[in-house]
């Protein structure tokens, strides 16, 4: 019986590997997921970290040279020919010096389109600089009147960040893990469709089912072939992560990122049951379809569920004890903990794996029953 | 040997088989002849156990297909109604796959495959991928995968559709040589000339029932017609060949 399994598995693998187009489609997902994330991170980091010069229109600079100098010390300059000013106007009133001398309130106008999101950090920097200068003047005035500047600062926030470097990394790199999980669901998809709905479309299903093969071995071998692809996709994306993140300057964000070979191996082992479940689920759906196209439609609808779950949890950060033993979520938690450098609850991982495998076994049984029904075989 | 006894099968509102009984002996070519929609394919499918008859039994070498489908499938070679090829495999890999499913691995498997390739005269296409094969070449591959395990019984569902003269000859030679080896060959067709030329015995079925059985010669004599075609038309009782 074992040799039957390997005969079918080997044939499906050969068939799938020769299908270059779907092979590329499958693996490119696993490959480009981490690369895409790395590129996105590079952009975010450069934007967040680099204190680049901000060029704005400064009207009435001549009325307040000291103020303009201060802005300059905060790297905010008036726009010039080479460095075009942004659409942010800083308007200094004509009576600046008079009001300053009389200790009256001075309105500095910051005029900009506050709905332009790309300039929000620049607007913030301008406003912060003005507030800073304002409190400097206030402090000096109080000192002149013999009052300590501390009088107007009754409460001071003392920020003590308990985030470890790893946990900060987890916050950001968690999104990468979403891609690893999605690679599982997408890398084996084409193979699963081809081996089920494709087989029916080619009219080769009837002959195959009329061979002396116990149906459950046929189902397991086909699911096994699709799962192999799903698994290879996941392994590829896990191996890609440390490679591509070498190029991302994560240390600028104070994030220390390292993924040891042992952690990678642990992640890979954890994902095996999920690859099996994803593939049998895809077989279950696409054996019901009459053609390749139809199967693709159904599968993309069904695959939406795990993807929605992963994204939902990733962004809402819901927590519930059940989540740590359910398929998809338990594996997701394990990946997150690994990358966050937290202790991994192997009991949860184990139970999650068993639940996943049990669900896989049930689906194998269901698909086997389906393939014994005339309706499904002949697409009646 | 293949026997059916009182096979009955109905789909929702259509009764495909109504107590079909016949026998196909070893060392003979038996033709299952009937107009379109007579239930030929349903009958063959129930012999290899993909369709479960509501009533009656289908036996291959005295083994009931509904009881032990795997045992039955080991003893038959099938040329199904619809045969699709794995287009990314070569003809040789294709046949070897099904040989392996019948337990022929390694050297034994390779030899069995080579024998079939030689028998069917497909050396020139053996190592080409089956995508783009002509109808005749596809038929050879389908025949090859059906007989690679040297089954005692061979079931063919309209094997000669879409074949040119040369391919039909190869098919005929193959069936004759298998008959010489004492195998049981059952094939369905709606083309009476083919059946008359090829078969030792003919089973004429209409609307899920056997209406006549015998050698083409006997059927002509029984109906008093000189040609087999006239005999067939008279037996199925309508000129169009469609009857319910």
Chart the SSEs and their pairings.
The complex is a heterodimer of chains A (380) and B (244).
Chain A (H helix, E strand, L loop, with lengths): L1 H17 L1 H30 L4 E6 L5 H9 L2 E3 L9 E4 L4 H7 L6 E4 L7 H25 L20 H23 L1 H13 L3 H5 L5 H31 L15 H26 L5 H25 L12 H11 L6 H25 L3 H5 L2
Parallel strand pairs in A: 1-2, 1-3
Antiparallel strand pairs in A: 3-4
Helix pairs in contact in A: 1-9, 2-6, 2-9, 6-9, 6-11, 6-12, 7-9, 7-10, 7-11, 9-10, 9-13, 10-12, 10-13, 12-13
Chain B lengths: L1 E10 L2 E11 L3 E6 L6 H8 L7 E6 L2 E2 L4 H6 L1 E4 L11 H11 L4 H14 L15 H13 L5 E5 L7 H16 L3 E6 L2 H7 L2 E6 L2 E6 L1 H8 L4 H9 L8
Parallel strand pairs in B: 3-8, 3-9, 6-7, 7-8
Antiparallel strand pairs in B: 1-2, 1-4, 4-5, 9-10
Organism (chain B): Aliidiomarina haloalkalitolerans
Keywords (chain B): ATP-binding, Nodulation, Nucleotide-binding, Transport
GO molecular function (chain B): ATP binding; ATP hydrolysis activity
Describe the structure.
- With 380 residues, chain A is mostly helical.
- In chain A, 66% of the residues lie in helices and 4% in strands.
- Chain A contains 14 helices and four strands.
- In chain A, strands 2-1-3-4 form a four-stranded mixed beta sheet.
- With 244 residues, chain B is an alpha/beta fold.
- Chain B contains nine helices and ten strands.
- In chain B, the strands form two sheets. A six-stranded mixed beta sheet of chain B has the order 6-7-8-3-9-10, sandwiched between helices.
- Chain B starts with a strand and ends in an 8-residue tail after the last helix.
- Classes of the chains: A mainly alpha (380), B alpha/beta (244).
- Chain A binds chain B through residues 3-4, 7-8, 11, 14-15, 18-19, 199, 201-207, 209-214, 374, 377, 380, and chain B through 11, 45, 48-52, 70-71, 73-74, 78, 80-89, 93, 97-98, 100-103, 105, 142, 145.
- Chain B: InterPro entries: AAA+_ATPase, ABC_transporter-like_ATP-bd, ABC_transporter-like_CS, ABC_transporter_ATP-binding, P-loop_NTPase.
- Chain B: Keywords: ATP-binding, Nodulation, Nucleotide-binding, Transport.
């Amino acid at each position: 019986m074992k040799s039957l399994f390997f005969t079918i598995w080997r044939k499906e693998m050969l068939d799938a590997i020769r299908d270059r187009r779907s092979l590329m489609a499958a693996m490119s997902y696993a490959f480009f997921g981490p690369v895409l994330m790395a590129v996105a991170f590079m952009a975010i980091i450069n934007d967040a970290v680099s204190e680049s010069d901000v060029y704005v229109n400064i009207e009435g600079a001549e009325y307040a040279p000291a103020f303009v100098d201060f802005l300059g010390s905060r790297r905010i300059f008036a726009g010039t020919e080479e460095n075009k000013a942004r659409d942010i106007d800083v308007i200094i009133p004509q009576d600046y010096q008079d009001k300053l001398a009389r200790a009256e309130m001075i309105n500095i106008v910051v005029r900009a389109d506050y709905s332009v999101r790309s300039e929000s950090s620049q607007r913030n920097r301008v406003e912060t600089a003005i507030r800073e200068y304002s409190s400097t003047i206030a402090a000096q005035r109080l000192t002149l009147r013999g009052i300590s500047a501390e009088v107007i600062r009754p409460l001071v926030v003392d920020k003590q960040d308990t985030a470890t470097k790893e946990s900060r990394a987890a916050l950001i790199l968690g999104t990468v893990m979403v891609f690893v999980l999605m690679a599982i669901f997408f890398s084996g998809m084409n193979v699963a469709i081809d081996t089920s709905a494709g087989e029916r479309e080619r009219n080769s299903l009837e002959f195959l089912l009329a061979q002396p093969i116990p149906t459950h071995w046929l189902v397991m071998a086909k699911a096994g072939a699709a799962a192999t692809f799903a698994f290879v996709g996941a392994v590829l994306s896990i191996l890609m992560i440390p490679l591509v993140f070498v190029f991302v300057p994560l240390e600028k964000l104070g994030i220390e990122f390292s993924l040891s070979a042992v952690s990678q191996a642990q992640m890979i082992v954890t994902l095996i049951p999920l690859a099996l479940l994803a593939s049998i689920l895809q077989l279950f759906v696409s054996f019901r379809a009459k053609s390749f196209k139809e199967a693709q439609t159904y599968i993309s609808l069904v695959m939406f569920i795990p993807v929605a779950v992963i994204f939902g949890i990733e962004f809402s950060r819901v927590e519930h004890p059940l989540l740590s033993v359910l398929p998809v979520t338990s594996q997701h938690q394990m990946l997150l903990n690994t990358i966050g450098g937290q202790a991994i609850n192997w009991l949860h991982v184990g139970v999650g794996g068993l639940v996943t495998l049990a669900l896989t076994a049930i689906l194998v049984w269901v698909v086997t029953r389906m393939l014994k029904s005339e309706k499904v075989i002949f697409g009646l | 040997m293949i026997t059916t006894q009182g096979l009955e099968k109905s789909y929702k509102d259509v009764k495909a088989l109504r107590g079909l009984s016949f026998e196909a002996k070893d060392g003979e070519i038996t033709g299952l002849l009937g107009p379109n929609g007579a239930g030929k394919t349903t009958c063959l499918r129930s012999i290899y156990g993909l369709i479960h008859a509501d009533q009656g039994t289908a036996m291959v070498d005295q083994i009931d297909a509904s009881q032990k489908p795997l045992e039955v499938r080991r003893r038959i070679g099938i040329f199904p109604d619809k045969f699709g090829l794995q287009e990314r495999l070569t003809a040789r890999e294709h046949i070897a796959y099904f040989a392996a499913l019948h337990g022929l691995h390694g050297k034994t498997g390779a030899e069995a495959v080579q024998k079939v390739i030689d028998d069917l005269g497909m050396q020139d296409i053996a190592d080409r991928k089956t995508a783009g094969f002509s109808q005749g070449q596809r038929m050879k591959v389908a025949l090859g995968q059906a007989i690679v395990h040297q089954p005692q019984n061979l079931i063919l569902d309209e094997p000669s559709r879409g074949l040119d003269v040369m391919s039909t000859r190869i098919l005929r030679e193959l069936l004759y040589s298998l008959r010489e080896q004492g195998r049981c060959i059952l094939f369905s067709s709606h083309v009476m000339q083919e059946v008359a030329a090829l078969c030792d015995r003919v089973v004429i079925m209409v609307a899920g029932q056997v209406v006549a059985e015998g050698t083409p010669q006997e059927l002509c004599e029984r109906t008093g017609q000189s040609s087999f075609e006239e005999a067939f038309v008279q037996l199925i009782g309508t000129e169009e060949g469609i009857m319910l």
